[in-house]
Amino acid sequence: MTAAGIIFSNIHDATIPELTGRRTMASIPFAGRYRLIDFALSNMVNSGITKVGVITHYNYQSLLDHIGTGKDWDLARRTGGIKILPPFITAYDNATAGRVYSTRLEALMGVMSFIDRCTEDVLVLSDCDVICNVDIANVIRKHEASGADFTVLTTTVDTAEQPLDSHAQVPVVDENGRVVDMAEYNGQQGRVKVCADIWVANRTYIKRVVTEAIAHGYKSFYRDVLIRNLAKDKICAVEYDGFFARINSLASYFSCSMRLLDPANRVNLFYRRNQPIFTKVRNSTPTRYSADAKVVGSMIADGCVIEGTVENSIIFRGVKIGKGTVVKNCILMQDTVTGENVRLTSVITDKNVVIRDGRELCGCESMPFYIGKQIMV
Fold first, then answer.
1. CA 198 vs CA 95, 112, 202: distances in Å
2. Do strands 29-30 and 331-332 pair parallel, antiparallel, or not at all (unpaired)?
């Protein structure tokens, strides 16, 4: 089966307004050198998908800067490649006098022209708030073998490690792998099977259900398409058992990032089955450590200058840690600069933040202290 991809870049922006005020969910920095869209793009590229449409909404300039021509994902192609699908040129947007989509289903309505031009057998749909390394080619093979119209990727989450919100979908799957029921998460604790918000569907099926949704005024992808059609259409599930994280708040962004300080989680995510996670290449100098620098249990990107102490933290490209400064359990994004004798604990700094000498800032794991982009403290 041939496949094309569609990525929803903005669907979950409202869940983490601190980081999406000036960017999309897809372009949120993560793990020192990546953006969240890198995981969705890499999953598709590693599975041989060479045509990908990225549906945008607003605030997508940083996303365009990151993706560029798509060459870092081998998607700079004459045929296929990566396509940015802005909302203001879509048929759905024009039909509603400038109204922009708010759900996945409305987003699909807006890119029907892209779907119509696709000749691939199946479409792979993916959100950008999930972090995983999935062998989508294997999911497509199982989708074809089962004869399903629509296949949902599921995973089992430990709520003690990864809290779920009420928007998480909990499927009921029978012994044949068919989804027989689905409902929103009800607060159950322990290990819970949830939808990973990655789907494989026959292209003709997507065209049919979206056309029906337009005719009936449907809005919700899960409620009005999947749940409504469980009885008459064949909707199956495939289980994913690797590293999985969902970003649904600033606290979850912090906790998901801290999980990567465990080497086992890093291997499971970045080196799973020899499927690398690709990102935009930035030619930077190696990180320089002074004679007094001390780094323990941290991830340090290239281009940094470390003159102080860094413990259990994630340091992005181009960050400078001044002399006598102590950084613990923090996430410092690109080009953050700290002065001398600074104390930071459970702090998230956005890009280009400056923290002057002698400052002491402290948050906690459930409520990290966040400093916005280009702010001087």
1. 28, 19, 14
2. unpaired
- For residues 119 and 1, give the distance between their C-alpha atoms in angstroms, rounded to a whole number: 11
Q: How far apart are CA 240 and CA 245, in angstroms?
A: 12
pTM confidence score? 0.93
User: Which residues are registered as beta bridge partners of 349?
Assistant: 332, 371
Determine the structural domain holding residue 314 and report its residue range.
288-371
Above 90 in pLDDT, residue 114? yes
Q: What is the pLDDT of residue 90?
A: 40
> Do 164 and 82 fall within a single domain?
yes
Three-state secondary structure readout of 317-332: CCCEECCCCEEECCEE
Q: What mean pLDDT value characterizes the chain?
A: 92
For residue range 38-93, what is the model confidence (pLDDT) as tens digits?
999 999 999 999 999 999 988 889 999 999 999 999 999 988 999 999 864 444 44
Residue of 142, 153, 117, 155 lying closest to 4 (CA atoms): 117
Are 261 and 332 members of one domain? Answer: no
The confidence score (pLDDT) of residue 375 equals 96
pLDDT at 257: 96
Q: Are 236 and 178 in contact (CB under 8 A)?
A: yes
Residue 32, domain member (yes or no): yes
Based on the fold, state whether residues 107 and 183 are members of the same structural domain: yes
Q: Using an 8 Å Cβ cutoff, are 68 and 301 in contact? A: no
Do 348 and 222 sit in the same domain of this protein? Answer: no
State the amino acid at position 335 in one-letter form: D
